[in-house]
Amino acid sequence: MAESGHVLPLSLGFTMETTIAFVRMWLCGVFDRFPRLRILLAHAGAAMGSLADRVQSCVEHERGYYTENQKVGGPRRSLKDVLRTNVWLDGISYGATGLRTAVDLVGKDKIMWGSDHPFFPPMVGSEEEEEWPSVRSNLEAVREVFASDEEARNNILGGNAINSLKLYNRTYPQ
Length: 174
Description:
Layout: H1 7-27, H2 30-33, E1 39-41, H3 48-61, E2 65-67, E3 70-72, H4 79-86, E4 87-90, H5 96-106, E5 111-112, H6 133-145, H7 150-164
């Protein structure tokens, strides 16, 4: 792993672990038992945008679910229903393609601004020492994907978080 530094764990490890954890929650019936549960899935949905249909197909073809050698039922709700109903995503995609995939997965009203700050600080000694490339690339993705939709752009950059977390009409200490 030394030859790849942190590239593999940061780019693939975190996203695959997030994907596996979410699918396990769905398979074991968490969203069936708690239908109003709301979660924020990191990494712009991780690999769910690419794998949701594949996972759903595998579930539809599964012949049995077992717990301690006892047959149990699988998830009652479709994966897409759970994604559209129970899941919000951060917008940490580092590019327009990933952000478009995230929007397709859950809808533009369920994406919240994200940057991975402070994990990817500016390179010391670079011309961009004061700028955080991870923040810039995520902001540029939002601007590109929603170039003609100012309301969606503003919602992703803050409005969706305010609405989802019910932070409106509150008085905050000065």
